[in-house]
Amino acid sequence: MINIIKNLYSPLSRRQRLFYTLVLLCILPLTPSKAGFNAAPTRINKTLHQRASEQMQQGNYAIAYCIWHPLAEQNDREAQYNIGWMYHNGYGLMIDDESAFFWWIKSAAAGNTDAEYALGDLYRQGQGVEQDLSIALGWYVSAALKGHQAARETLLALLKEDNKSTRKMLKSLLKSNWSIFDNAMQVKVDKANTRSGPGKQFKITTTLQRGHIVIPLHQQDGWTEIGITGMAKTAWIFSRLIEKSPAD
After folding, report:
1. Is residue 153 located within the same domain as residue 224?
2. Which of 9, 76, 107, 221 is the 20 to 30 Å CA partner of 233?
3. Which pTM value belongs to this model?
4. Domain count of the chain?
5. What is the CATH number of the domain that holds 233?
6. Which parts of the chain sit beneath pLDDT 50?
7. Given its phi and psi angles, is residue 133 left (phi above 0), alpha (psi -120 to 50 degrees) or beta?
8. Which domain covers residue 44, as residue numbers?
9. Are residues 190 and 120 in the same domain?
């Protein structure tokens, strides 16, 4: 047993060894108190979360871990997210994005939008999982539709990129969930032609009526590339023919 412990500790820094020692010392007395958590979960868990957050701010990562880990094992979605965050950032632990993913997927399944956003980052950057922009966009959309502002901002920035995955997601959102965009504009003339490129030399693709909501993507030479809501398509329109939507 001593040799096993030595093997586990040998690759760790002095600080990390101290962290794991403290975890071993404090996690045992915390574990039997599960019945106490279940007795009044909302009140007690709130107090424990506050205590763990205070310990994090003071740099006492081992104590914070010991508080959050039992809660995470009891499917507390906030604790699951926080444990994942500790693994992702290496707060007292070796950076381990596979473990971060393990806890964040549990937290996201319970409805935590911070975890959904974090999973989007893991998939976009290929950390702890195979890089997959399509899956990343799906997590960002899920969080953004629930009001997560950072997810909305990240999503909108990505959707302006001209690649297959982002364009596919953009068209899907334009058709049914365009309210996710916070920069909507509308056609301000009775009829406005849209074109396949930024100029009158490009063919007309559709004609929009006054008040039709569009999403600006790019501007070039007095023209704006737009996403056309309800149609799942993009096109170019003369910039002077659209204005900020009053509902935006």
Report:
1. no
2. 221
3. 0.77
4. 2
5. 2.30.30.40
6. 1-12, 17-18, 20-25, 27-41
7. alpha
8. 2-159
9. no
**Do residues 145 and 77 share a domain?**
yes
pLDDT, residue 65, reads 93
- Compute and round to an integer the Cα radius of gyration of the chain: 25
In the chain, the N- to C-terminal Cα span, in Å, equals 64
pLDDT reported for residue 247: 61
